[in-house]
Amino acid sequence: MGIYIFIQTPFGQNWIAKQVTKRLSKDLQTRVSIAHVDFSLFNKMHLEGVLIEDRQGDTVLYVGDMKVRITDWFFFKKQAELKYVGLENAIIKFQRTDSVWRQQFLLDYFGSSGGSGKKKEGGLKLDLRKLELKNVSFLKKDGWMGEDMHIKVGSLDLDADKLSLSGSRFEVNALLIKDPVVAIYKYDRKKPRKIRTAEELEQEIKKALGWNNQTIVKVANLAIINGTFSTDKRGQAPARLFRWATPALYGDQWQMEQCTL
Q1: Which whole-number Å values give the CA distances from 44 to 67, 84, 234, in the listed order?
Q2: Mean pLDDT across 142-146
Q3: Is the pLDDT of residue 1 over 60?
Q4: Longest dimension (CA), the chain
Q5: What does the pLDDT read at residue 82?
Q6: What single string gives the DSSP state of each residue in the chain?
Q7: Digit-coded pLDDT (tens) for 206-244
Q8: Residue 247's pLDDT is what?
Q9: Which helix (H) or strand (E) holds 223?
Q10: Nearest-angstrom CA–CA distance, 23 and 12
Q11: Do 216 and 162 form a contact (C-beta atoms < 8 A)?
Q12: Taking all residues of the chain, what is their mean pLDDT, rounded to a whole number?
């Protein structure tokens, strides 16, 4: 009873969070921190100031505010529903200057059972119902392939009908994206170029044509408001390819219904 009361208090919850991040920091050999936590057992969680760094001391993930609502007592079930996930003021960074991404150690750790190197079998299956993003950025700096990418959304609201995080069929009732920016910058890559054989070229073509792999994405209503897409290349004048924020294209928004990929 005393333990239950302890983990219901702000002090107890933040103490537990510090112990978890301390363990993760030690296992990952990098900085992991959470400024503040607030959760209701066992279906709601509110995190503030979530930070994960790579081993070079640069940010891999920062989330100013994160809210999660999940199925009650989800850890006793094989399948759970993420009723709501909200991220605000967040940034995700992927970086590499050679063939290995800086965050690969994170993927290796969380893709195994507690860092033991053995792959997880079974596990909890999650279905996402509602996702809200506000001021979220994704940065990819790929010096190995000579391409940087910046994706940012002012806001994103997703209402899903069937969206299993481990499945191949994704059905979305509505997706509204405001102020998205997609910017790509190309430059000389560090990866040495090699002369490819006809067989290698044929395999690359087959791989490109087989990108779908039986995955179905269905969106009933899609709206994008005030978006920008641009691509630049070192040594050339900047070129903005597409922007939908002019009266020539349905005022300031682009809208589709019954979209399936």
Answers
A1: 8, 9, 47
A2: 94
A3: yes
A4: 70
A5: 78
A6: -HHHHHHHSHHHHHHHHHHHHHHHHHHHTS-EEEEEEEEETTTEEEEEEEEEE-TTS-EEEEEEEEEEEE-TTGGGSSEEEEEEEEEEEEEEEEEESSSS-TTHHHHHHHTBSTTSSPBP-S--EEEE-EEEEEEEEEEEEETTTTEEEEEEEEEEEEEEEEEBTTSSEEEEEEEEEES-EEEEEE---SSPP-PPPHHHHHHHHHHHHT-STT-EEEEEEEEEESEEEEEEETTS--EEEEEE-STTTTTTEEEEEEEE-
A7: 776 665 667 788 888 999 998 888 888 887 766 655 555
A8: 38
A9: strand 216-225
A10: 17
A11: no
A12: 80
Report residue 134 as tokens: 């506000």
Structure tokens at 222: 């899609």
- Partnered with residue 218 across adjacent β-strands are 171, 260
Q: How many residues does the chain have?
A: 261
Give the tokens for residue 40.
């209701």
Give the model confidence (pLDDT) of 88-143 as tens digits.
Answer: 999 999 999 999 999 898 888 876 544 444 544 444 566 788 999 999 999 999 99
Q: What is the Cα 182 distance to its own chain's centre? A: 15
**Which of 42, 38, 130 lies closest to 84, judged by CA?**
130
Q: What is the pTM of this model?
A: 0.74
Distance linking the first and last C-alpha atoms of the chain: 52
Identity of the residue numbered 68: V
One-letter identity of residue 97: T
Angstrom distance (rounded) from CA 194 to CA 79: 46
Rg, the chain, Cα only: 21
Residue labelled with tokens 């509204």: 176
Cα distances from 46 to residues 4, 38, 65, 73, in angstroms, run 18, 5, 7, 17
Structure tokens at 43: 């279906």
